[in-house]
């Protein structure tokens, strides 16, 4: 049974009745009254850590109620003040700093949060949970190296810490140490420790096993689906809107974007010729795929729109193609997608993988397609491209590509919003 945290020092025990009365107001949801009561106590007893903590909690509650970042910043400052008072019980220090770090993260103050977490670790060096939180703090600012060091330290102190294991495995996988990542991800998930039951870890463990040719991958995808992290065993995107129609392959009619498809197919030679001209003249515009999706080979892309933002410089190289697309906001405004040329050379294999979101569909327009040797699988069905024709699939389903032809394959990729998203959702969904 979890021990109740000790929040009162010797002095606060003498004013327990007044503190309890203020706390009762807070628990009843009388936020403004609670804040006034705690402010009065802080004015009367400025050295009382519990009164100061109650004030911070009331400001925190009020910030949520008012949806006010300004009020939340006040709460953060007050949590910080608690720790600087004399004779603060260690449980109260832990609660104050942990909440301060959490609220800083909520406001996007990642580096400030990191400083708070570092303070916690310095004050309580034997508490692995604070080190684990610090590791997450480093991951949130993209500092995988420091996060890795933190988790190595945790695993030295507590070799069976499941939280540290899944995060350490996640970092190894990001470093492309596929085989090494598997035992950490697997043992971490099997531990059932708090914070381990997260879709990302099932996703990356399954992916790592799949790349090693291990059929156990399917078991973890199945488990991730049963735990509610994936829409299905095949559809494993993690940034989803519930209830959208889900199928691997779509027809133009089903999407409702028939005008866009007709326009792409009618103008495919123009799109192809502009792409070829750029490819011949300035190869540096095509950048190698950088998401570590290739097992082998040569695959490059030239992006015109990213996250709903037009790349003006890129469009100056293919002006007619970009002018053509401007008429279709379902594509140019799709903040969860891209519009790009994609060239794949012979001898390329793209690992089975899953896109990040179910909020888009992906169109592939064939531009230069070798007669044999190129194919794409989405879920359990293989298809091939045709020059001048559009293939439409939902890339939140597992898909895989093979290029075993004699010559390169050039396609044009256009992502569009899922047709069932409302206008409001299209406006407000954050970019990916």
Automatic annotation (TrEMBL):
Keywords: TPR repeat. Pfam families: Asp_Arg_Hydrox (PF05118), TPR_16 (PF13432), TPR_8 (PF13181). InterPro entries: Asp/Arg/Pro-Hydrxlase, ASPH, IPNS-like_sf, TPR-like_helical_dom_sf, TPR_rpt. One of its GO terms (cellular component) is endoplasmic reticulum. GO terms for molecular function: peptidyl-aspartic acid 3-dioxygenase activity. The keyword Metal-binding does not apply. Residues 265-419 form the Aspartyl/asparaginy/proline hydroxylase domain. The keyword Flavoprotein does not apply. TPR repeats lie at residues 128-161. SMART domains: TPR (SM00028). Belongs to the aspartyl/asparaginyl beta-hydroxylase family. This is ASPH hydroxylase. It comes from Centropus bengalensis (lesser coucal). The gene is Asph_1.
């Amino acid at each position: 049974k979890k021990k109740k945290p000790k929040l009162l020092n010797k002095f606060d025990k003498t004013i327990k009745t007044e503190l309890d009365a203020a706390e009762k107001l807070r628990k009843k949801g009388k936020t403004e009254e609670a804040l006034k009561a705690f402010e009065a106590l802080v004015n009367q007893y400025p050295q009382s850590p519990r009164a100061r903590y109650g004030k911070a909690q009331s400001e925190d509650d009020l910030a949520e109620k008012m949806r006010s970042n300004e009020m939340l910043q006040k709460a953060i400052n007050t949590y910080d003040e608690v720790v600087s008072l004399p004779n603060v019980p260690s449980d109260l220090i832990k609660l104050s700093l942990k909440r301060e770090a959490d609220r800083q993260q909520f406001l996007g103050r990642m580096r400030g949060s990191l400083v708070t977490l570092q303070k916690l670790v310095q004050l309580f060096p034997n508490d692995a949970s604070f080190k684990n939180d610090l590791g997450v703090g480093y991951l949130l600012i993209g500092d995988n190296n420091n996060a890795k060091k933190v988790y190595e330290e945790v695993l030295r102190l507590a070799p069976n810490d499941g939280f540290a294991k899944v995060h350490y495995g996640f970092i190894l996988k990001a470093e492309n140490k596929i085989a090494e990542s598997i035992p950490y991800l697997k043992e971490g998930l099997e531990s059932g420790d708090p914070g381990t039951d997260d879709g990302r870890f099932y996703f990356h463990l399954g992916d790592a096993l799949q790349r090693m040719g291990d059929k156990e991958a399917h078991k973890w995808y199945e488990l991730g689906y049963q735990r509610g992290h994936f829409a299905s065993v095949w559809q494993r995107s993690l940034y989803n809107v519930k209830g959208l129609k889900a199928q691997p392959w779509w027809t133009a009619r089903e999407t409702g974007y028939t005008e866009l498809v007709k326009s792409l197919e009618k103008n495919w030679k123009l799109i192809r010729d502009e792409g070829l001209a750029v490819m011949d003249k300035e190869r540096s515009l095509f950048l190698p795929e950088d998401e570590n999706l290739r097992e082998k080979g040569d695959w490059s892309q030239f992006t015109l729109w990213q996250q709903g933002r037009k790349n003006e410089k890129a469009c100056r190289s293919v002006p007619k193609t970009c002018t053509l697309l401007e008429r279709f906001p379902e594509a140019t405004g799709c903040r969860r997608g891209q519009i790009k040329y994609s060239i794949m050379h012979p001898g390329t294999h793209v690992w089975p993988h899953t896109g990040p979101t179910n909020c888009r569909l992906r169109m592939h327009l064939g531009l230069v397609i070798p007669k044999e040797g190129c194919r794409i699988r989405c879920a359990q069905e293989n298809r091939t491209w045709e020059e001048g024709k559009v293939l439409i699939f939902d890339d939140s389903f597992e898909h895989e590509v093979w290029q075993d032809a004699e010559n390169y394959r050039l396609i044009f990729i256009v992502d569009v919003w899922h047709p069932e998203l409302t206008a409001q959702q299209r406006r407000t969904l954050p970019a990916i």
